[in-house]
Design brief:
Strand content: under 5%
Helix content: 55-70%
Number of helices: 3
Radius of gyration: 26 Å
Shape: elongated
Number of strands: 0
Structural class: mainly alpha
Distance between the termini: 52 Å
Order of helices and strands: HHH
């Protein structure tokens, strides 16, 4: 599962490295200015970050304290015969 996740992350990163400059060039060619392309990329990044925050992706459960990880082994007084 870890290898598949790493592969997916790398694929999406490489796709962004290809699409970003293409979009930037396309917007610059259509408008004749550089800043609208940069603005488009900034807005896209902000929308992506908002989606990630709203969906709670990447959120982890708090780590258990070491005391919670200790097995509940009965002590010698719990085995005493009454």
């Amino acid at each position: 599962a870890a290898a598949g996740s790493i592969g997916l992350i790398n694929s999406v990163g490489n796709l962004g490295g290809f699409v970003g400059p293409k979009v930037l060039g396309f917007v610059e060619k259509k408008t004749g200015l550089f800043w609208p392309g940069i603005l488009f990329l900034c807005v896209s990044m902000a929308v992506s970050a908002t989606i990630i925050v709203l969906l709670g992706l990447g959120r982890r459960e708090p780590d258990k304290a070491p005391a919670d990880l200790i097995l509940d082994i009965p002590g010698p007084t719990e085995h005493a015969v009454h």
